[in-house]
Structure formats: C-alpha cells, structure tokens
Structure prediction request, 234 residues.
Amino acid sequence: MKKISVLVAAVIMAVGLSATSCNSKKSVKLKTDVDSASYAFGIANGGGMRDYIKNLPGAPVDVDLLLAGLEIAMKNDTASMKMTPEQAQMYLQTYFTQAQTKENEKTKAEGEKFLAENKTKDGVITTESGLQYKVITEGTGEKPKAEDKVKVHYTGTLLNGTKFDSSLDRGEPAEFGVTAVIKGWTEGLQIMPVGSKYTFWIPSDLAYGERGAGGDIKPNSTLVFEVELLEIVK
Prediction:
C-alpha cells in the first residue's frame, strides 16, 4: 500500500465531518495578486488531488466531506475537528489497509472464477501449474529453451479487456530472455514453436501476484496475453 502523505491525510480526514460549509459555491473575486495566487494554487493542485482519490480503495470519496475536513484543517479550527490529525492518520492507515485487502481478495476470486470457467471451453489447455493457453496459429519452428532469448509480438489485457501493454502499439517486437519475465511467460514460451501465435491466460501467482505491477495491474490480477513467437535470437 502506498504511504499516505500528511497532505493527503489532511485532505481525506473529512470522514465523519459535517459538510455544511461546502454545500454552496463561493463567489470568486480576484482583486489582488495574492487573491489570484491563492486561487491558482487551488486550481493547480485540485486536479492532481482529484486523480489521486479516484484510485483509493473502497467506496468513492465524498468530496463535500473532504473539502470540509480540508477547510477545518487549513484554518486550524481544532474546536470543530471530529478527530485530531494524528487520529485521522491512524484511521486512514487502518481503513485503506482493510479496503485494499478486500479489493485484492475480490480480484483474486474473480480471476479464479474466470479460469475455472475458461478451462472448460473448446481448445483451452490447462497445464499443471494452472497456466491456460489456446493455439491461434501453430508454428513449425524450434521451441525455445530456458536459456534462450526470444523475439515476440504481444498484447496484454486484463480480464475486463483493458489493454496495459502491447509491442504492436509500439511498432516493434520485444526481445528478452525466456527466464527474464513472469513465470507464466517463461512456461508458455517453452510450449510454443517459432511461428506460433497463442493466447495465454495467466493466473496471478504466475504473474505479478500480491504485489501487482502498478497502474492497471492490481494485486492478484489474472492476465491475458496474445503472443506471437517470431524467432529465437541467436
């Protein structure tokens, strides 16, 4: 879990606070340079704050409560605070840890359900490790060994279809060692003859596991790759 900064703690410490002071839009009048700087600071930082809270686990953040907490903290109105900044920080650490755990468990369960259903479909082969694959085109070349380096084209997506990586989009094949990638790739590449194109469904424990890979690849994500093995690099 990302460490929650003091700024974010102050911003989101709004849990349980009254939002009455934020229910109406204030009339903005920029009469002085300081007025303009104050407003500019809010505009410049508000977008980043908005994008940050979109990625927080649990239910969507109540913006009115967030702003109420921010205003009270900025004005140091301790009499109106429902919790101290220290209590807010402790609460957030606990809350986000629990929310992230629930989200990770949900992602894992969704992957397991998908794989259980997918393995019954025509053409899908499941290996002993749990890796699943389907042959799109079967090549006639040599199969790579663990010590080999390969050249491939690939596209990686999540189960919901979100694309997170593609050598095709970059316009050039990728080259790497067979053992220099996630376990699912290492196993899958050694199944493919050169000239083949396969679809792989990779369980989380053969991908990035509980750590995830940042961005779109959350912890416990099952991944889908369409891989074309172009050559073994000599």
Remarks:
- The longest helix spans residues 85-118.
- Residues 65 and 87 are 17 Å apart (CA to CA).
